[in-house]
């Protein structure tokens, strides 16, 4: 019943854009949207970072805009001007701060993403605006719609609250590029594509593999493979992170889950420290998204002789993905 009610409101909202009742805001600068059909856990943030850096390497100037989910600030915040980080995690949100730290791009957040797009265009002389989590944000016009789909979404194709989908697979009629992540198979996707799929739709397989881990408090320190670890994660789907650690032969003696975008408190830190002491280990394993929120507790961990090791993800894509994006934008 609730799923049908959710579907009704989604259809009603989308029809206002489809019929022109609501007109999207248009930027002069080409907008590239990276989004999901589902709620979280598909690998969107690493892909946004990948696209930003690849476009920058080609000599393009890129700005990244987003909402800054679970940030404590209001209005518009310039997280980075492309040279300096200008906001902390409470002002920027974990994902947008991570994007700012891992790219050389201006990063802006606003609860109305189209306003961030207009500001990015006004404040920075950029060639592309990259819209984070933009598939459902139809208020901002875009030249290229990239959608990530994981295996779980294909196997459990139900709308919220029964499943994880924000929209049905019919929404893929708007997609220009689909990225299959985390075990999603192309044959399973093809069975769910709508009949009015765009004729030039491109499909890519995107894999995420563990890159070199490092100490949060001293990046010159590599993660020791012969130690025991407490693994902590505040993700929509922490199972993938934990499996990556064990598949790379790290000894995980306890796993601690927090909710997605969890804002760590002193009580949480005490829980983690006590777990490490109880298990007689000084090593914590975590994600980059969690690390941007844990670093402010550096003193607490160091005073207890505990180090946090961050396990980043490397994006591997089969095919000429960036050329496909540029072709889509120019068409």
Q: Tell me the structural class.
A: alpha/beta
Amino- and carboxy-terminal Cα gap = 42 Å
Order of helices and strands: HEHEEHHEHEEHEHEEEHEHEHHEEH
The dominant shape is globular
Percent of residues in helical segments?
25-40%
Strand content: 15-25%
In the CATH hierarchy, the architecture of the largest domain is 3-Layer(aba) Sandwich
Number of strands: 14
Rg is: 20 Å
| Number of helices, where a helix is a run of at least 4 consecutive DSSP H or I residues | 12
* CATH domain topology of the largest domain: Rossmann fold
Number of domains: 2
Which residue ranges are poorly predicted, with pLDDT under 50 across at least 5 consecutive positions?
Answer: none
Under CATH at level 1, the class of the largest domain stands as Alpha Beta
Structure keywords:
single chain, 331 residues, alpha/beta, Rossmann fold, 2 domains, 9-stranded mixed beta sheet, 5-stranded mixed beta sheet, 14 strands, globular
Mind sketching the topology for me?
Elements: H1 2-18, E1 31-36, H2 44-57, E2 62-66, E3 77-81, H3 89-92, H4 94-102, E4 106-109, H5 113-123, E5 128-132, E6 144-150, H6 151-155, E7 177-181, H7 186-190, E8 202-210, E9 214-215, E10 228-234, H8 238-247, E11 251-258, H9 266-278, E12 283-286, H10 288-294, H11 298-303, E13 307-310, E14 313-317, H12 321-330
Parallel strand pairs: 1-5, 1-6, 2-4, 2-5, 6-7, 7-8, 10-11, 10-12, 12-13
Antiparallel strand pairs: 3-4, 8-14, 9-13
Helix pairs in contact: 4-10
């Amino acid at each position: 019943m609730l799923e049908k009610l959710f579907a009704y409101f989604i259809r009603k909202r989308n029809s206002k854009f489809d019929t022109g009742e609501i007109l999207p805001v248009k930027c002069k600068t080409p907008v590239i949207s990276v989004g999901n059909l589902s709620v979280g856990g598909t690998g969107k943030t690493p892909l946004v970072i990948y696209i930003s850096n690849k476009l920058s390497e080609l000599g393009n100037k890129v700005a990244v805009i987003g909402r800054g989910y679970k940030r404590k600030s209001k209005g518009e915040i310039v997280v980075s001007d492309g040279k300096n980080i200008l906001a902390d995690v409470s002002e920027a949100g974990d994902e947008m701060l991570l994007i700012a730290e891992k790219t050389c791009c201006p990063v802006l957040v606003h609860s109305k993403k189209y306003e961030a797009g207009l500001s990015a265009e006004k404040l920075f002389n950029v060639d592309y605006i990259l819209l984070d989590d933009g598939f459902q944000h139809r208020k901002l016009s875009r030249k290229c719609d990239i959608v990530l789909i994981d295996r779980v979404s294909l196997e459990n194709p139900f709308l919220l609250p029964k499943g994880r989908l924000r929209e049905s697979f019919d929404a893929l009629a708007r997609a220009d590029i689909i990225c299959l992540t985390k075990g999603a198979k192309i044959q399973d996707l093809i069975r769910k594509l709508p009949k009015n799929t765009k004729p030039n739709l491109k499909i890519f397989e995107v894999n995420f593999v563990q890159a070199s881990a490092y100490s949060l408090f001293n990046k010159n320190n590599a993660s020791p493979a012969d130690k025991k670890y407490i693994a902590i994660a505040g993700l929509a789907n922490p199972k993938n992170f934990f499996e990556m650690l064990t598949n790379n032969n790290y000894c995980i003696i306890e796993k601690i889950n927090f909710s997605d975008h969890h804002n760590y408190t002193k009580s949480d830190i005490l829980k983690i420290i006590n777990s490490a002491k109880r298990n007689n280990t000084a090593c914590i394993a975590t994600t980059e998204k969690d690390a941007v929120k844990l670093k402010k507790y550096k003193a607490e961990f160091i005073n207890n002789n505990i180090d946090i090791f961050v396990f980043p993800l490397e994006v591997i894509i089969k095919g000429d993905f960036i050329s496909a994006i540029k072709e889509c934008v120019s068409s």
